[in-house]
Design brief:
There is one protein chain. A hairpin with a 2-residue loop joins β12 and β13. The protein is of the alpha+beta class. The chain has 24 helices and 19 strands.
């Protein structure tokens, strides 16, 4: 009974979170529909069909354009939203008899009802695939499969755009290159965050779920509009695609601009399909007005998708115009193609150039060109064709023969699609095959071949296994993979016996067969995700406690060192009204760690530390780290592990290659070690003391890093030690005098360590094997704790010459 009660509680909790996210997305879509519907007239687009959809996209474009200029004039996004509502209400009252709201209810209500039902179905599916509570006491409201810090970057900047004012990261940071390239995604996230009482972090997953739901709705609508499949089959195919392994990989990586712009592109393609089916292939005005908001939105959300949408629109529009002209007169006029293509390009430039100076063009297109290089990114194998179709299976085709089979699969798919187009002409069925159907099958074949040739270009340039070819696959063949299902189904029905699928009972059998195959693929995707999927990246809700740090008072600056980039971004999100200085590597501006800057007015937050070695001046923030109001200092007779997460009272400033569970890995001809201590403890000593190091030459268990001991020599000021040999882990003690410390606050001791070749006969001083050893721990003591290393004066040994 207890387990059933817990299960019911979990279902109820996720149900509330899911419904809240769905409601937030529908409110945002309704807001866009109100903006666009109050300004667009029905006669402008030449047809009542798709008018509500066009109003939503137009409203979104108006919102993006207004937010763009509002932020440049230092107006926060909530203020611009309120101004848009007032203006839209005024326009609606003035033009209420001519705008889209004046369309007959028989046109509006069915379209709105169908959209809400379809959107709800796909939103619930997207949430069930990646369930995430919007408000949870244990974990923060995000769930990704990779530690992609872009997600937190969008959240930080969107939160800033809601309030503006003081920037806790760096002056002008939120208006740098990433913002100039994808500004629209920040505005949508800020809009949902404003609806959720300025909780931008909680708005991230509903935005992603909503974008995925929109892609599913557009896919199902395109199947019905172009290939005339039933509503049930179209929904199942849409569910198969959004549940696919590769789609979920892209979805779970936090690429917010790509999701949102892909949804806009799919709806723009749907609008063009409606335009082609309406027979308005000669209505220039309708085509230009239809493309304008889609081109504008995709460019301001994600320029790469804007380029893809321009190519798709060129193929569909120019192709349909040529086809329609040839069917009427039987003549092909090349001039008409150039005119239409030129008009499409003009629309793109007018859509984005009207609202922005030329330097945005330069930055956006330059960024697209940089990321389109096949040699940019990390190595990834060619995607199997079944991953692009939503069929479960491994995405990494690492075996050579498997790649050959993948290429064969791509060829078969392209031939299948082209055969569909050829059949329309060769077998005299051109009149029976709708124009939109032929154009979309051509588009599907072109999408698959585009990815194939992109991979081939990278192959000949030696960079075929690149991250970029996966991005290319997510832009084109993945989004238009539904065309393969539709064309395959159509061909199967054509070649099969009419006795099986020609009659009314046969059509029922055919729908049952399609639904059964779709359900099998959907179940396989869910099973693959439950059994083979990597563990999702989560973050503890303990970071919420950082909101209280500014309330401690007494300081306006905070130095931050965290374990990874995601933690750094979360500190920037939760700590407000303080100027942050980041010490650990991340995409944020970083500074060099200097303990002299740490004091009560400039404290240090060190992530992962539990304040075990610190005095009363430190405050432990549970689950986050240690807040120090004084720099960490070495104390006598206390061992400091160099692998711990504690602040560095002794640190390797040069020559370290990383930290492992056993210590600090060093790999350089010379390593510099810096110890920090209170000046009154080490500068006023009358007797010499010792700095002790635990050194392990063979701690790394990897075979390629194993070496037979180590030969070391130490420098301390102008003193030099003899060469010592280590075969295994050992403590060594280096004596120092008070004069060896640099008088500062805190005092510093610079100790240099030479790593010499193991083979003394190697006269050139080079060791071809990996030179790697580990510093495990260190301490200060009045008596040696390990093997004593005597130091002798050496006039020519100057440790400052590093």
């Amino acid at each position: 009974m207890i387990e059933i009660a817990n299960l019911l509680q979990i279902i109820a909790t996720h149900g509330v979170s899911m419904l809240l996210g769905l409601l937030v997305c529908l409110i945002a879509i309704g807001f866009f529909a109100f903006l666009g519907g109050s300004t667009v007239r029905c006669s402008s687009i030449g047809s009542q069909q798709g008018a509500v959809q066009y109003a939503c996209v137009t409203g979104a474009a108006i919102f993006v354009a207004t937010s763009w200029y509002a932020l440049r004039w230092s107006i926060p996004i909530p203020t611009s939203i309120a101004a848009l509502c007032v203006v839209s209400l005024t326009l609606w009252l003035i033009f209420r008899k001519r705008n889209i709201f004046a369309a007959p209810s028989s046109v509006k209500l069915p379209e709105i009802t169908r959209f809400i039902v379809d959107f709800s179905i796909f939103y619930v599916a997207a949430y069930c695939l990646v369930p995430e509570l919007m408000f949870d006491d244990k974990e923060l409201p995000y769930r990704l499969i990779t530690r992609n810090a872009d997600y937190f970057h969008y959240a930080n900047s969107a939160k800033y755009f809601i309030h503006l004012g003081y920037d806790n990261i760096a002056e002008g940071y939120h208006f740098r290159e990433a913002y100039w390239v994808t500004p629209g995604s920040y505005y949508f996230l800020a809009l949902l965050g404003a609806i959720l009482d300025n909780n931008v972090l909680a708005a991230g997953m509903p935005l992603i779920h909503g974008a995925v739901a929109l892609i599913g709705v557009a896919t199902a609508s395109l199947l019905r509009e172009t290939f005339h499949v039933t509503r049930l089959v179209s929904r199942l195919v849409g569910l198969v695609i959004i549940s696919g392994v590769f789609f979920q990989y892209v979805f779970g990586s936090g690429f917010i601009p790509q999701y949102v712009s892909s949804a806009v592109m799919m709806f723009g393609t749907l609008q063009l399909a409606m335009w082609i089916n309406s027979g308005a292939s000669t209505n220039w005005r309708a085509m230009l007005l239809l493309m304008l908001p889609y081109c504008f939105l995709t460019f301001y959300i994600y320029p790469a998708i804007a380029i893809i949408y321009t190519l798709v629109a060129t193929l569909l529009v120019c192709g349909s115009v040529i086809q329609a002209a040839m069917m009427r007169s039987g003549q092909f006029r090349i001039g008409r193609v150039f005119v239409w293509w030129g008009s499409i390009v003009a629309v793109v430039f007018i859509a984005v150039g009207t609202f922005d100076p030329s330097h945005f063009f330069y930055i956006a297109f330059g960024y697209v060109g940089k990321l389109s290089d096949a040699q940019v990114g990390w190595p990834l194998y060619m995607l199997p064709f079944y991953s692009l179709l939503g069929i479960p299976g491994d995405m990494q085709a690492s075996v050579g023969c498997l790649e050959i089979w993948i290429l064969i699969g791509f060829t078969v798919i392209a031939l299948n699609l082209y055969f569909y187009v050829f059949k329309s002409y060769a077998f005299g069925s051109r009149e029976r095959t709708p124009l939109a159907q032929r154009m979309f099958v051509t588009l599907g074949a072109a999408a698959w071949l585009a990815y194939f040739f992109y991979y081939a270009i990278g192959y000949f340039h030696g960079a075929s296994r690149s991250y970029q070819q996966w991005k290319m696959a997510s832009y084109l063949p993945l989004l238009f993979s539904f065309i393969f299902f539709a064309s395959t189904a159509h061909l199967s029905r054509t070649v099969s016996s009419s006795r099986w699928f020609g009659s009314s009972a046969g059509k029922f059998r055919w729908n049952v067969l399609c639904c059964g195959l779709a359900v099998i693929a959907l179940g396989g995707n869910i099973a693959y995700r439950l059994t083979q999927w990597p563990e999702d990246q989560r973050q503890s809700a303990d970071f919420e406690a950082l909101r209280r740090v500014p309330k401690l008072g007494g300081f306006d600056d905070l130095y931050v060192h965290m374990r990874n980039t995601s933690d750094v971004m979360l500190v920037a999100y939760f700590v407000e009204k303080l100027r942050l200085h980041f010490l650990s590597p991340s995409s944020l501006p970083t500074e060099q760690y200097d303990p002299e800057k740490i004091d009560a007015k400039h404290p240090l937050l060190w992530g992962g530390s539990q304040c075990a070695n610190e005095k009363a001046s430190a405050i432990y923030i549970y689950g986050v780290g240690c807040l120090l109001r004084a720099p960490p200092l070495m104390q006598f007779d206390h061992a400091y592990r160099l692998a711990s997460d504690d602040p560095p009272a002794i640190d390797v400033t040069q020559g370290r290659v990383g930290r492992a569970v056993w210590g600090s890995q060093v790999e350089a001809p010379r390593v510099r070690i810096v110890a920090y201590a209170a000046a009154e403890e080490v500068m006023q000593q009358k007797l010499r003391a010792f700095v002790n190091l635990q050194i392990c030459p063979n701690c790394d268990p990897r075979p390629d890093s194993y070496r037979e001991g180590a030969r070391l020599r130490f420098h301390l000021g102008r003193k030099l030690s003899p060469i010592i040999s280590l075969k295994d882990s050992r403590w060594v003690s280096i004596p120092y005098d008070p004069a060896d410390w640099v008088d500062a606050r805190p005092a510093k001791l610079f100790l240099d360590m030479d790593i010499l070749p193991v083979n003394e006969s190697n006269s050139d001083g080079k060791d071809r094997r990996p030179i790697e050893l580990v510093l495990v721990a260190a301490s200060l003591s009045a008596a040696p704790q390990g093997e004593l290393v005597e130091m002798a004066s050496e006039p020519n040994a100057d440790s400052s010459q590093f």
